Amino acid sequence: MIFKKIVDAKKYKKEIIKAKLISTEGSVPRDSGTFMLITSKYLFGSIGGGQLEYTIIEKAKKNLSYPSQLFIDGKYLNSITGKTFDNISPINGKLINKVTFSQKEDVDKAVAVARKTFESGVWSRAAPAHRKKVILKFAELLKKNGLELAVLDTLDMGKTINDTYTADVPGSIKNVRWYGEIIDKVYDDIAPTPYNSLALITKEPIGVVAAIVPWNYPLMMAAWKVGPALVTGNSLILKPAEQSPLTAIRMAELLAEAGLPEGAFNVLPGDGTTGKALALHNDVDCVAFTGSGEVGKKILGYSGQSNMKRVQLECGGKSPNVIFADCENLDTIVKVSATAIFGNQGEVCSAGSRLIVEDKIKDEFIEKVVKESKNMMPGDPWDPKSFMGAIVDKTQLDKIDGYVQQGQKEGAKIAAGGKIMLKNTGGYYYEPTIFDNVKNNMKIAQEEIFGPVLSSITFKSAEEALKIANDTNYGLAAAVWTKDINKAHLMAKGIKAGSIFVNNYDEADLTVPAGGFKQSGIGRDNSYHALDTYLQIKSTWIKLTDK
User: Fold this and answer.
1) pLDDT averaged over the chain?
2) Which residues pair with 320 in a beta bridge?
3) Domain 70-76+97-315+525-534 annotated CATH 3.90.226.10
4) CATH for 320-510?
5) What is the rounded distance in angstroms from the CA atom of residue 19 to the CA atom of residue 22?
6) Residue-by-residue DSSP string for 418-480
7) Any residues with CB less than 8 A from the CB of 434 and at least 6 apart, and which?
8) Closest Cα partner for 256 from 138, 114, 121?
9) Is 90 exceeded by the pLDDT of residue 439?
10) β-strand 235-239 against 265-267: which pairing, if any?
């Protein structure tokens, strides 16, 4: 019902805004503070019955705006310099709002506040049970405000409301809740030392953490960092991508409401210069980054130029999806393979962008994938029936189209797609595109496009498939499809990647670490292993003597 009302509202070109219930007149009394989404024509998001009076709607609308400011020491603020940047929706190319552009002066202020809070011990030395309580409260607030957060992500990034509301928001809640639950189950150790000594091995928060997150999963990627970084007792500065700052800014308010102390969480919207200032700062102890390999390399350099801060990187991928002729249920594999590259508009670091198919079934497989791609065309992101939404901005749209043109120049054949779509919307949309006859040395097979572009490569033997799969600078993910268990194990052992999927693609669970080999990253997100980024180990020796 909510989805339908969103779609109906968009048909009438009405902007969606968030309202907080102030009071009711001539209606069943409702608790103040309840949130709902409204347009001038519609009200949706249940408040438990009754009607909100027209006068109340009008009163609320006058005080509404999308989140736009940086957040430092428990307060929303403008930049010290007063600078802002335009936040454009890729859905229609229109201005959403002007967002505070955090400068170096703001970075210095946020770091100083985060350091002061950390050293005070109000959060860093709080009992794990207390931190657990706060983080679990935060998870509940994410759930309570889930529809709003989904709308903000869709508006900001252009992905479908179906993805944000049914996948991204629940996934973010689950992540935060999981780390809240685990923290009082992390034990220190006592080493097996000689009888006259005692060696304690303890885990301590690392200090001030800067988390720099991408635009493809704005809320979820923030949650991946926020959960483990905060629950371990660190002070955190979150720098969202300039293309998608809204949910990160809103997150600050929810964490404050959950009871997180002032200064323990700060948000600095901005561009690469903001991230650079954080990565170079001598009082930042750790940078946790998800994004491109190019930027990841720079952050490593900034660490060396400054204080040798710890760096955790989850960078790009050019993941091989290897299909052997002996695989079963070809139609199912086709659907999974198409989803692996066209899901989220192809803007996924682990996307199965290289389809490596055995020659015996190549023609049949490509024909089926082309047919399946026709069911995955981009559409209105507000329509829950749309499989693909908009590309995040015009720069990325032009980059995708540039790679498509380059692929044709290099001799690859377009089997489907290859065009910019829905230009009349003013937004940025690209057709699911499939290249056949690709050689693995072509740019479209070697470089991360980060869009709905699939490169098909043919092999004749398992040895050749393994060689092609590993012929890349990346090592984030890979998939192997075969009914031969021996072949599956040998391929899984041989492929140099952090996640190997056998007869599936992109399975995920919070209990399993995510990260890459080679230039796909350093360290891991998710699971107990993610805590390693945000904790440091101390060994304390105690000499025991008989009196």
Assistant:
1) 92
2) 354
3) no
4) 3.40.309.10
5) 9
6) --EE-GGGTS-EE--EEEES--TTSHHHHS---SSEEEEEEESSHHHHHHHHH-SSEESEEEE
7) 366, 369, 370, 373, 414, 415, 416, 417, 454, 456
8) 138
9) yes
10) parallel
DSSP one-letter string for 196-249: TEEEEEEEEE-SEEEEE--SSSHHHHHHHHHHHHHHTT-EEEEE--TT--HHHH
Which of 383, 393, 390 lies closest to 421, judged by CA? 390
**H or E element at residue 531:** helix 531-534
Q: What letter represents residue 301's amino acid?
A: G
- What distance in Å separates the CA atoms of residue 539 and residue 412, rounded to the nearest whole number? 57
Model confidence at 147, pLDDT cuts 50, 70, 90, reads: confident
Token duo for residue 517? 């080999």
Amino acid symbol at 30:
R
Q: Which residues contact 278 (CB under 8 A, 6 or more apart)?
A: 107, 111, 210, 212, 237, 239, 268, 284, 287
DSSP 41: S
> Which residues have C-beta within 8 Å of that of residue 545, sequence separation ≥ 6?
196
List alpha helices for 266-422, DSSP H: 272-280, 293-305, 330-342, 362-373, 394-409
Look at strands 477-481 and 521-522 and give their pairing: unpaired
User: Residue 379: beta bridge partners?
Assistant: none
Residue 315, φ and ψ in degrees, nearest 5:
-110, -150
Residue 152 structure tokens: 């903000």
- DSSP conformational letter for 317: -
Yes or no: say if 421 and 430 are a contact pair by the CB < 8 Å rule: yes
What CA–CA distance (Å, rounded) separates 184 from 231?
10
Residue type at position 412: A
Q: For 349, what's the count of Cα atoms within 13 Å in the CB-facing half-sphere?
A: 26
> 243 near 428, Cβ under 8 Å?
no
Angle at 180 between CA 36 and CA 120, to 5 degrees: 100
Question: What residue spans in the chain does CATH classification 3.40.309.10 cover?
Answer: 320-510
At 148, is the pLDDT very low, low, confident or very high (cuts 50, 70, 90)? confident
- Does residue 370 sit in helix, strand or coil? helix
Question: By C-alpha distance, which of 69, 42, 246 is closest to 155?
Answer: 246
| Residues, the chain | 547
| Amino acid (one-letter) located at 131 | R
CATH 3.40.605.10 in the chain, residues?
Answer: 70-76+97-315+525-534
> What average pLDDT does this structure show over 400-428?
98
Contact by Cβ (8 Å): 355, 457: yes
pLDDT for res 84:
98
Report the distance separating Cα 506 and Cα 352, nearest Å.
Answer: 9
Of 436, 474, 480, which is closest to residue 455 (Cα–Cα)? 436
Specify the pTM: 0.90
Which three-class secondary structure state does DSSP give residue 289?
Answer: strand
Q: How many helices (H) and strands (E) does the chain have?
A: 18, 27
Q: Which helix (H) or strand (E) holds 257?
A: helix 246-258
Sign of the CA dihedral running 330, 331, 335, 336: negative
Contact 389, 160 (CB under 8 A): yes
Q: Residues with catalytic annotation?
A: 314, 349
Give the bridge partners for 25, in sequence order: none
